[in-house]
Write a structure and sequence with these properties.
An eight-stranded mixed β-sheet has the order 1-2-4-3-5-6-7-8, with helices on both faces. It has helices at 2-29, 116-130, 143-154, 172-178, 187-200, 210-219, 242-250, 287-294, 312-315, 317-328, and strands at residues 48-51, 54-61, 68-72, 94-98, 136-141, 159-165, 274-279, 300-305. The chain has a single domain, classed as Rossmann fold, CATH 3.40.50.1820. The protein is built from ten helices and eight strands. It is of the alpha/beta class. The longest helix is centred in the N-terminal third of the chain and has 28 residues, at 2-29.
C-alpha cells in the first residue's frame, strides 16, 4: 500500500515537473541573439517625417512637382518594406512611403494613441504636409486599402484615385463575412506562437516593445493569403508592431464585442477612379471577397495578378507594377472595366 502511494506521488511529481522541464530545456536550447530593428526613436540614421509631434519612419522618391502617390502598408502593425518596388514609379510620380504610428520602424506610442480614427488623422496630416495644394493617389495594401478608402470618403476632393490591393473589410457586412475565417487554432500555429514567445524571453533591446514585436513578426503571416511556395518570412518586413495590431483591431469593436464600422459610409459620393488588385492565390480576401467589395464604388476596375498571393510586389512585381502604371497613366492601356 505504501509503495503504491509513493509510486502515485512520484507520478504526480513527474507530471507537474514535466511542463517546467520542457520549458527550461526549450529556453536553454533557444538561448541566442534575436535581433530586432531599432525605430526612429533610437536610430538617428533612419529617414523620417514629424507630423503633429509624431515621428514616423518615411521615405519619398521622385520629383517634388510630380503627381503624388501615397503608399499605405498592410496591418495594422506591419510596415512598407515589401512595397518598396513601387519606388520604380518615381520616374513619373512622387512616391511616398511611411510606417504608420506604432508600426514598422516608426515611434511606438501609448495605447490611447492607437485607433482607426487616429490612424486616419495621421494620414490626413501626411497628405496636407506632402501635397497641400493637389489631390493625391493612394496605393493601399490590405489594411492600408481600408485606410485609403476611409480617407477618400472623407476627402473626395483631395483624392485623385485609389489602388486597393486586396483591401480588408470596407464595411460591417464584409467584416462579418471575413472575420470568422481569420481565426487560427491549428496545432502548428499554437506551437509556433509558443516557441516564438520563448525565444522572445531572450530579447532585451532595443526597446521595451521589442520582444512582443518579435513574436508578432514570427506569427503574423496567414498562409491562406499566399501561394504555398511563396510564403513571406519575418525577414520580408522590418518589424511588426504588436501593440498597434492589437489596439487598433480592438478599436473596431463595440463594448458589447460587436463590430460596427464602415470605412466608406456613402459610396456614391466618391466618383474617382478605383483599381482593385486581386491575386491568384489568396483564398481569404481574394477574388470572391473583392468582387463583393467592388460594388461599393462607381468607377471601378480590377486587375488579376497571376502567380501571386497577397504580397503582390514580392510575388510578381513586374505584372503588378505594369497594372499600377497603366491605371495611373491614362496614355497607357488600362485593365478591363468591370
Amino acid at each position: 500500500m505504501k509503495r503504491g502511494f509513493l509510486t502515485f506521488l512520484s507520478a504526480l511529481v513527474v507530471m507537474a515537473a514535466g511542463p517546467f522541464l520542457l520549458f527550461a530545456a526549450t529556453y536553454l536550447l533557444t538561448w541566442r541573439s534575436y535581433p530586432v530593428k531599432a525605430t526612429v526613436e533610437t536610430d538617428s540614421n533612419l529617414p523620417r517625417v514629424v507630423l503633429k509631434q509624431m515621428t514616423l519612419h518615411a521615405e519619398t522618391f521622385g520629383p517634388p512637382q510630380a503627381p503624388v502617390l501615397v503608399v499605405l502598408h498592410d496591418g495594422p502593425g506591419a510596415d512598407y518594406r515589401s512595397l518598396l518596388p513601387l519606388k520604380s514609379l518615381s520616374d513619373q510620380f512622387r512616391v511616398v512611403f511611411y510606417d504608420q504610428r506604432g508600426s514598422g520602424l516608426s515611434a511606438r506610442v501609448p495605447e490611447n494613441k492607437l485607433s482607426v480614427q487616429q490612424a486616419l488623422e495621421e494620414l490626413e496630416a501626411l497628405v496636407d504636409h506632402i501635397s497641400p495644394d493637389q489631390a493625391v493617389s493612394f496605393f493601399g495594401h490590405g489594411w492600408g486599402g481600408m485606410l485609403a478608402t476611409a480617407y477618400a470618403g472623407r476627402h473626395p476632393q483631395r483624392t485623385a484615385s485609389l489602388i486597393l490591393a486586396e483591401p480588408g473589410f470596407l464595411n460591417t457586412e464584409m467584416a462579418h463575412k471575413i472575420l470568422p475565417e481569420l481565426s487560427r487554432t491549428s496545432a502548428g500555429f499554437i506551437f509556433n506562437t509558443t516557441l516564438s514567445w520563448i525565444k522572445s524571453l531572450h530579447i532585451q533591446e532595443p526597446d521595451r516593445e521589442a520582444a512582443a514585436d518579435f513574436v508578432y513578426s514570427q506569427i503574423r503571416v496567414q498562409p491562406r493569403y499566399h501561394c504555398p511556395q511563396k510564403l513571406p518570412t519575418a525577414e520580408s518586413y522590418w518589424r511588426g508592431g504588436f501593440k498597434a495590431w492589437k489596439t487598433i483591431t480592438q478599436s473596431t469593436f463595440t463594448k458589447q464585442g460587436q463590430i460596427a464600422i464602415d470605412f466608406i459610409k456613402d459610396p456614391k459620393s466618391f466618383q474617382k477612379p478605383v483599381l482593385f488588385l486581386i491575386s491568384e492565390c489568396n483564398t481569404l480576401t481574394g477574388k470572391t471577397f473583392q468582387n463583393h467589395q467592388m460594388r461599393l464604388f462607381q468607377q471601378v476596375k480590377k486587375a488579376e495578378i497571376k502567380h501571386s498571393g497577397h504580397e503582390f510586389l514580392l510575388d510578381n512585381p513586374q505584372a503588378t507594377l505594369a497594372q499600377v502604371r497603366s491605371f495611373l497613366n491614362p496614355s497607357e492601356q488600362k485593365p478591363e472595366l468591370k
